[in-house]
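Page header: ASSEMBLY MODEL / two components / 492 residues total.
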Amino acid sequence: MTLNPVFAAAVLRKGAPALSGYRLSGVEAGRLLAVVSQRGMSVNCTLARANRFAPIADAFPLTCSLLKPHLRGLLDELWSVHRPGNYQLTGEAGAFAQFLDAKLSSGELDVEYAAEVFRYESKAWDLIQTLRSSVCGHSAIVHFTHDPSVLIKCLERDELPPAGLPAGAFAVRLTLNGDTLEVDLVVAGLQAGTRRA
Amino acid sequence: MGSQTVTCGVGVLFNPALADFVTEHEEALDYLAVIPDRFWIDNGTGAPSRFEETAAGEAVLASASLSLPVVLHGIGLSICSAEMFDEQYLLQLARWRKRYNSPWVSEHLSFSRIGAGHETNAGVALPVPYDREILNLLQPRIEAARDILGCPFLLENNVSYFAFPEEDLTEPEFLNELARRSGCHLLLDLHNVYTNSRNHGFDATAFLDSLDLSRVIEMHVAGGSEMMGCYTDSHTGPVAEPVWDLLSYAAPRCPNLRGVTFEFHESTWPLLRTEGVLRQLARARDVLAVAAAAA
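Prediction written out in full:
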């Protein structure tokens, strides 16, 4: 019930019949029915969701900021099928990345700038994973179709970037030096006729 | 490697925000408490190389351990899980205890790992009912933990946001019986006691009076915050004021107390910063001094 607020709500609403799929003693069933009606059950569900979200927000802060209006629905959908498989919750960021990648690739989720911001953070996250083996000096190039300095600056302030930024060819180089991630703009060019005054 | 001896002092539970603090303010600490799970990735019970240690993270710890005792506070044992007991995890804790010559090791009296596959996690530490059946489940597990670790094994009283009806024992009765039967010691988290007392409406001092405080080796002090009509053990910022009162009350009554550990979540570092952490440690030290003088 802690992991599944929908089930907890069903137990609260329907009572004992909602627990009929489990082999419970009378005392066990009675306890679950008592617990689910206490406000602390909602606190537990919320804390579990917050704990699961923490590694996702840590890995993809700008993506989460950009997707804020959609985020709750996306997480509900992901978590309805994905259970945390590890007490350290190490798989949560990867599961979110895989889920979001599929949504963006299929076009099911269409949010301006989301694909490139997510691509940028995915690369950064991949590089940071190399810290696990203490490998330093790795780098990666990430391509953007909108000015990354504008996108990143806005999202770092938890602000949505202005709509309709002119399209162009941009690229940043991510370099991991020790535990520091350096970001350099290496290509910046607007398409002809799209440069703003 | 630091001395294994901690007479009775103050420490802090390490988090990444404290990396510089530990180096620069070592004199404010008598020991360093560490969640070892922060320094490894557990690839799961079936993985060929289960515990993957993160060398970069451990550098700070290795350096601190040259001058400070390191005590371990595990989060992954899930000792109250009904269907499994993870000896591999205990062996990993034992390796770390040996590496850092830790004077004691603690874990939580709760469960988070669920299901017959053992690898679904609830995302939070869940409480168990205080029943004799649970005592019977835990006794051999604790005895095994003590054997494997080779040092005092402490269990931390849990925070619980709901109450089970029809429990066999009260929480202090359960903890006393558990310690007596299994030989474990207690990590008395005073903020958990305070949180439970607020949410469930009992007298925290009476709770302490009911507890066999001779089993307490370490105490935790922390702060919390309100959420959805409950007071939560969020480890927000400085120690909650009533927790200092509980520490003043409990410390002189714990004859085997060896450490008071301040814990906070790294996200609330801006509420503390270096001066704030130093203030919590100094205040804890003052309480211990008064307790020692009264003894």
